[in-house]
Amino acid sequence: MQVLDGVDFQVEDGEILGIVGESGSGKTMTALSVTGLLPPAAKICGGEVIFRGANLLALSRRQMNRVRGEKISMIFQSPRASLNPLYRVETTLAQVLRTHRNLRGESARRVALELLVDVGLPDPPRVLRQYPHQLSGGMCQRVMIAYALASNPSLLIADEPTTALDVTVQLQIIQLLSRLRKEHGLTLILITHNLSVIAELCDRVTVMYLGKIVEEGPVLEIFDRPRHPYTVGLLASRPTVHVEGTLATIPGQVPDVRERPPGCPFHPRCPFAKEICSEQHPVREKVDSGHSVECHFWREVG
Known about the structure:
Elements (H helix, E strand, L loop, with lengths): L15 E5 L6 H9 L14 E2 L2 E2 L5 H10 L1 E4 L3 H4 L6 H13 L3 H14 L5 H6 L7 H13 L5 E5 L7 H18 L2 E6 L2 H7 L2 E6 L2 E7 H6 L4 H8 L47 E5 L2 E4 L8
Parallel strand pairs: 1-6, 1-7, 4-5, 5-6
Antiparallel strand pairs: 2-3, 7-8, 8-10, 9-10
Helix pairs in contact: 4-5, 5-7
């Protein structure tokens, strides 16, 4: 069973790349492939993951542990579930600082407090003493971001960092990530199904469907001139105060990867589909500078 199929993208230094798509599109599996955190039953059958000139797939487990901790950090979907309920914030943060920055004692505590201040947590000394269950969802997410920043990574992968939060806290996390990107020079891969978050935060966006990249380009270009029917459907389904009546939807649902349709994977749900779409997979074509799409009829879309 092939979950990802020819996923190919790059991220420039200091850039925020958004990866968007419905549940089951392969967004999280892409992130886990980059970080080497795939479940035991999964494996990468080919290709490369190039980071700072090195192929991460060729590294030993020990070498990958150093890269993953010191150069690449990841924020997971559920912040509360990602925090160990048995340890106070200070204990876990001190462990990260000791492992990756060789800091102990008062030095580690000072840096831990600075990290909590940096992510906008009120009363950092109190937060350090608390357990995860004593923190709100937004506070847990900020603590997770502090953990991710503790090792001074150059690449941060955020997997659905706002999904479990209410709308006002979502905005705060978006603003926080934007500020950290500017202040720390972070390169960020943001995985989300929320197109509003993509529009607010990202420079470029990659649209995934059933384990494939179907469209990629600058955020403004994709939002103004989408060329893949799937991207058009995603954008049309956004809730907005300016549209009255029934919310637009994409018919059907993402199929199981074990039942991947032949040809273009989106053709059973596509209003532009013709016979060739069920027989032949489209090749990636250049629409404009930095904008590419995989669709037989992209010129008719938009």
